[in-house]
Amino acid sequence: QVQLVESGGGLVQAGGSLRLSCAASGRAFSTYCIGWFRQAPGKEREFVAAIRWSGGRTAYTDSVKGRFTISRESAKNTVVLQMNSLTVEDMAVYYCAAAQSLYYSGFYYQSREYPYWGQGTQVTVSS
Question: What confidence tens digit (pLDDT) does each residue in 66-124 have?
Fold first, then answer.
């Protein structure tokens, strides 16, 4: 099985930054799409960003474009979500997810499309 471990969450003031990491293990990820999702209290789980491991193409939800950056550190099997200019609307539990795609080169945007998930890391933003 694929194991995913998120880290880097914490408390930050509005306007500040956090760097989340997703450490992956279990197999090679050249055929995988790695995504970040978040879930705030009373809200549905929401797509944030994704990256194709091979080639490094990225996708973002509109609300984080220009503020968040997803990237990979291949040697460490790690995906990073750099979050800048945080607002209280970004406060949520952030989850890393992985989906294997052998024949599809695009992105997955729905949580049901990802079979592997980390445990989540809490991001708290104070005003």
Answer: 999 999 998 899 999 999 999 999 999 999 999 998 899 899 999 999 999 999 999 99
Residues, the chain: 127
> Which of 32, 38, 3 is closest to 20 using CA atoms?
38
Tens digit of each residue's pLDDT (9 = 90 or more) over 97-112:
999 988 998 999 999 9
CA-based R_g, the chain, Å? 14
- Alpha carbon distance 66, 47 (integer Å): 16
DSSP, collapsed to helix, strand or coil, labels residue 19 as strand
Cα–Cα distance, 126 to 87 (Å, whole number)? 8
Residue with tokens 């990237």: 71
Instruction: Tell me how far the alpha carbon of residue 31 is from its chain's centroid.
Output: 17
109: buried, middle or exposed (CB in 10 Å: 19+, 13-18, 0-12)?
Answer: middle
Whether 27 and 97 have beta carbons less than 8 Å apart is answered as no
CB 37 within 8 A of CB 14: no
